[in-house]
């Protein structure tokens, strides 16, 4: 704040000098400090900070901005790329350089693989396979619902929620037509749930057991022998053959 010293018409018997250079402040502007009055040049040279950008003193009549132990003239506090003033704008400091949000996003932010727009710093995003998506843009290829934090299965450039992937790609049981999500057995080159492959006669599970078939229907050895197998002329017991199923998917 400027003050003005008394004029020559005032009493000259009392000294009123600059505390730094000793020159009289009568009739001159001065700035009062704890160390006494200072003429304007001495005040600037003694107390003014140096601008981190232009390396000039920030005078008493300049608006001064302060950021991370650095002082700036208002006009020097600007984006290092587009030179936009940052005095009243949001900004980011990258590698000790000041950047407006637009320049920072253009240089350092990712582009959404779905919509092509910038993924703004601090916004929710998903990253997979070296690509980035806005959270709301990362959709199931099947049902087009956001995958968010849900499990998904990548396939041929698409991303599927588990239900859609199973409906589209998972093998289906030859008996119940429902998907096999794990395990299962193969019979006549078709996938079956282990619990679905049962004897047509007694409903005994056949997975891992020897069995045979008639008209494509599987039978355990005992049922087939009782129902269809020829009897031994000597012992009268059924003459049967067996097949062991192969496991599918472990």
Write the layout of secondary structure elements.
Elements: E1 3-4, E2 29-33, E3 36-39, H1 40-47, E4 64-67, E5 70-73, E6 91-94, E7 97-100, H2 101-108, E8 125-128, E9 131-134, E10 152-155, E11 158-161, H3 162-169, E12 185-187, E13 190-192, E14 210-214, E15 217-220, H4 221-227, E16 243-244, E17 246-247
Describe the structure.
The chain is of the alpha+beta class. Among the domains are: 3-47, no CATH class; 139-169, Ribbon (Cysteine Rich Protein); 185-247, Cysteine Rich Protein. Helices cover 12% and strands 25% of the residues. The strands form seven sheets. The chain has a three-stranded antiparallel beta sheet. A three-stranded antiparallel beta sheet has the order 13-12-17, with no helix packed on it. Strands 15-14-16 form a three-stranded antiparallel beta sheet, with helices on one face. Strand 4 and strand 5 form a beta hairpin. The longest helix is centred in the N-terminal third of the chain and has 8 residues, at 40-47.
Summarize this entry quickly.
The chain is an alpha+beta fold. 12% of the residues lie in helices and 25% in strands. Strands 1-2-3 form a three-stranded antiparallel β-sheet.
User: Which percent band covers the strand fraction?
Assistant: 15-25%
Radius of gyration from the alpha-carbon trace, in angstroms: 43 Å
Specify the CATH class of the domain at 185-247.
Mainly Beta
- The CATH homologous superfamily of the domain at 185-247 is called Cysteine Rich Protein
Order of helices and strands: EEEHEEEEHEEEEHEEEEHEE
Q: Which structural class best describes the helix and strand composition?
A: alpha+beta
CATH architect. name of the domain at 185-247: Ribbon
What is the 3D form?
rod-shaped
Number of helices: 4
Intertermini distance: 85 Å
For the sheet with most strands, the description reads:
3 strands, antiparallel
Binned, the helix content reads: 10-25%
Average pLDDT, all residues: 82
